[in-house]
Every structure is written in structure tokens, then in C-alpha cells.
């Protein structure tokens, strides 16, 4: 019998054989950092990645030499922290992941990182706009709610902005949400999927539990779960006690997002929640928003609506939009004032 399930795996197999012929260069900017190193390692394990380019202001070649000994097929190259090194790391790249910048210490919000990370992301975005204008750009550096608009402004100023190719990586929120809900319900997290919309910090992170496998979660349990998803990053910052924020789980999430784009470019239908230039709340002046996005060879294929939410979630969305709007405008203003 030819069930829907068999048909799906046939499509997957076909996509896989296409991908075997794919040539995909992936670049990590900030590759020697807490996220950059495990992220680069996970990308080295991904068969769809054929060339891995590792760049950092310090330590790129060392990390590359180390990872290059892993016996998978791809080539790995580390680049020196020079304009030529950055150019060579970027040229021909299909995906550029940017985890460059400083992480949080206890007591800090992601917005507290703005002063340092805004200029780092702006400068790397300038280089990406010049040397990899058609790549998918995946922004990990915080505050994502502002660093994505910063990147968009830089690409616009260079005349190469393609809203379909710019992504704020919010995958860790989705990863956390499915893990945390499985702890509440005693289930396998692999079978849990929670849509998380909005942005990537505190109250801008809006989990839609009513759309999950467990719309019954309510009251104090719901409040605690939503709070844990919104502020899960703080658990890591606190436990690391000054040594940084999430790096290993973030590397996992970043590698998943990169893989999703590579699979989509090979023709698979892949849906991820990600922070993109979005029409959903443009009428309220919000230019970027994370929601479910269908990925394709062109990057963003279709931005799916938020869908049906309950009154509680509507309240969360309203609180989100207020903060998000400020974060976006702050990023855009930064580039106008500091081009
Ligand atoms: P880290 O300090 O361990 O590593 C950052 C790396 O960036 C360092 O190796 C540094 O040399 C490099 N770097 C700094 N300026 C650079 C430049 N101009 N060009 C190239 N490389 C440069 O920090 P970590 O823990 O890896 O975090 C990186 C960023 O990711 C932080 O902004 C953090 O807040 C963010 N983050 C984002 C998450 C998300 O869900 N999107 C989750 C966790 C962290």
C-alpha cells in the first residue's frame, strides 16, 4: 500500500539524493567563540555542507585546523582576521551564520549587549553585503530583535537587500519550548512542537501553547511554562555564573536552522519559526516578526500567519509588540546615526 507516509519519505529520499550533488559553502563569523566552535563542529557533521569557512577576530585558523581532522567529506578552512580573510571566507557562501559578539553576564538583558554587538554586526553585515550579497544571512548575535534590523539597513544602504534571505535565529526558543513542555507532560520532546512567535528576548518571546499538542495546559502551570520559555536563557546565564550564556544548545539550534535552509534549497518543504521582514504586523509599524515560515530555495518562501490564539496569548502578543517595536527602531536608528 502506498500511504501518505511512504510518499513523504520518497520525497525525502529524492531531496536527499539531490542534496548529495549540492555544493554548499557555509560560513561562520565568530567561529572561535562559545557558540561558534560547537556550531562549526555540528556543521562539519552535516553532509549537505561541502565547504566550511571559519572566521573570527581571533582563533579562526586554530578551530578550523582542529575541526578539519574530523573524517567527514567537507573541507574546512580558517581565515585570518583581515579584510582579505573576511572576503575570502564570505565569497561563494550559501549560508552565513553570525554568532560574533559578546554574550550576557548575570543580571544583563539582551538589550544590554546592544552597544557592543550593534557595531560588530553592522561591520560584518557590510562585508557580507559586499562579498556574499545573495547568501542566506542567519543572525545569532544578540539582541536579535535589533541586530536583524541593523543587518537589513546595511544591506539596503548597499542596494542588495533581499528580505527573503535575512533570518534572525530564534530556533533555540522553539527547541527550549518543546523540551520544557515535554518535562511538564512527561512526553518525548522529539514529538513536541510549540510555535513560538514574536521576537527573541523576554516578553517578546510568545509561545502559543494553544496550538501545541497540549492546549489543555492552563492556570499556574501555563504561566510557569510560558515564563520558563521566555526567560530560559537566564537559567543558563545564572548557572554559568559569569562565563557567558547558552552556547551548546544554541549551537544545536543554529545547526538545525542552517540544515533546514539547506534542505529547503534542495527542494524539501521545511517550516521553521524565524524572525524575518514580515507583513504580519506592518500595519502597526512592526517591520520584523517571528512566525512560522515556509523555507524554499529562495530563502523565505511563505510567511504563515500567527493563526488562532486565545485571549491570554493575545495579551502576550500585545506586550511583545510594544517591546519589539522599540528594539527594531533602535537597530534601524543605530545604522542611520552610525553608518
Ligand atoms: P563568545 O564571546 O564566546 O564568542 C563570540 C566570538 O565572536 C568570539 O570568538 C569573538 O572573538 C568573536 N568576535 C567578536 N567580534 C568579532 C568580529 N568583529 N568578527 C568576527 N568575530 C568576532 O560569545 P558566544 O557565547 O558565542 O555568544 C555570541 C553571541 O550569540 C552573543 O551575542 C550572544 O548573546 C548570542 N546568543 C544568541 C542566542 C540566540 O538564541 N540567538 C543564544 C545565545 C547567545
Concise structural overview:
With 339 residues, the protein is an alpha/beta fold. Helix content is 46%, strand content 17%.
Would you mind describing this structure in some detail?
- The chain is α/β, with parallel strands linked by helices and 339 residues long.
- The chain has 2 domains: 14-170, Rossmann fold (3-Layer(aba) Sandwich), CATH 3.40.50; 172-254 and 265-332, L-2-Hydroxyisocaproate Dehydrogenase, Chain A, domain 2, CATH 3.90.110.
- Helix content is 46%, strand content 17%.
- It contains 10 helices and 11 strands.
- The chain has a 6-stranded parallel sheet, sandwiched between helices.
- The longest helix has 27 residues, at 311-337.
- It starts with a helix and ends with a helix.
- 46% of the residues are buried.
- 1,4-dihydronicotinamide adenine dinucleotide (NAI) binds next to helix 5.
- Residues 29-30, 32-36, 56-58, 99-104, 113, 117, 120, 123-124, 140-142, 144, 169, 172, 200, 244-247, 250 line the site of 1,4-dihydronicotinamide adenine dinucleotide.
Rg measurement, Å: 19 Å
Overall 3D shape: globular
For CATH, the homologous superfamily of the largest domain is named as NAD(P)-binding Rossmann-like Domain
The amount of helix comes to: 40-55%
User: Which class best fits the helix and strand makeup?
Assistant: alpha/beta
Euclidean distance between termini CA atoms: 61 Å
Query: Within the largest sheet, what's the order of strands?
Result: 3-2-1-4-5-6
Amino acid at each position: 500500500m502506498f500511504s501518505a507516509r511512504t510518499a513523504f519519505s520518497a520525497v525525502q529520499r529524492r531531496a536527499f539524493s539531490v542534496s548529495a550533488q549540492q555544493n554548499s559553502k557555509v560560513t561562520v563569523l565568530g567561529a572561535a567563540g562559545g557558540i561558534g566552535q560547537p556550531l562549526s563542529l555540528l556543521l562539519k557533521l552535516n553532509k549537505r555542507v561541502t565547504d566550511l569557512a571559519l572566521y573570527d577576530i581571533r582563533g579562526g585558523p586554530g578551530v578550523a585546523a582542529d575541526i578539519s581532522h574530523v573524517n567527514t567529506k567537507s573541507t574546512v578552512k580558517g581565515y585570518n582576521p583581515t579584510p582579505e580573510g573576511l572576503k575570502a571566507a564570505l565569497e561563494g557562501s550559501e549560508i552565513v551564520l553570525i554568532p560574533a559578539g559578546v554574550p550576557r553576564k548575570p543580571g544583563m538583558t539582551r538589550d544590554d549587549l546592544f552597544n557592543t554587538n550593534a557595531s560588530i554586526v553592522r561591520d560584518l553585515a557590510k562585508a557580507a553585503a559586499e562579498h556574499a550579497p545573495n547568501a542566506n544571512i542567519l543572525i545569532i548575535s544578540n539582541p536579535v530583535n535589533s541586530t536583524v534590523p541593523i543587518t537589513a539597513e546595511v544591506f539596503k544602504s548597499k542596494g542588495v537587500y533581499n528580505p527573503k534571505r535575512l533570518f534572525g535565529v530564534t530556533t533555540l526558543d522553539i527547541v527550549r519550548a518543546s523540551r520544557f513542555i515535554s518535562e511538564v507532560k512527561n512526553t518525548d520532546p522529539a514529538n513536541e512542537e510549540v510555535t513560538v512567535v514574536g521576537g527573541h528576548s523576554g516578553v517578546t518571546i510568545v509561545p502559543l501553547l494553544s496550538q501545541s499538542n497540549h492546549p489543555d495546559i492552563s492556570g499556574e502551570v501555563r504561566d510557569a511554562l510560558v515564563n520558563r520559555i521566555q526567560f530560559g536563557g537566564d537559567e543558563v546565564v545564572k548557572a554559568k555564573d559569569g562565563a557567558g550564556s547558552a552556547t551548546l544548545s544554541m549551537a544545536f539550534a543554529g545547526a538545525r536552522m542552517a540544515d533546514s535552509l539547506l534542505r529547503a534549497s534542495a527542494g524539501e518543504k521545511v517550516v521553521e519559526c524565524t524572525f524575518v521582514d514580515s507583513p504580519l504586523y506592518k500595519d502597526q509599524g512592526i517591520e520584523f516578526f517571528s512566525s512560522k515560515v515556509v523555507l524554499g530555495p529562495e530563502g523565505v518562501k511563505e510567511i504563515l500567519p500567527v493563526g488562532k490564539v486565545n485571549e491570554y496569548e493575545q495579551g502576550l502578543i500585545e506586550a511583545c509588540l510594544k517591546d519589539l517595536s522599540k528594539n527594531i527602531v533602535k537597530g534601524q536608528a543605530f545604522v542611520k546615526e552610525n553608518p
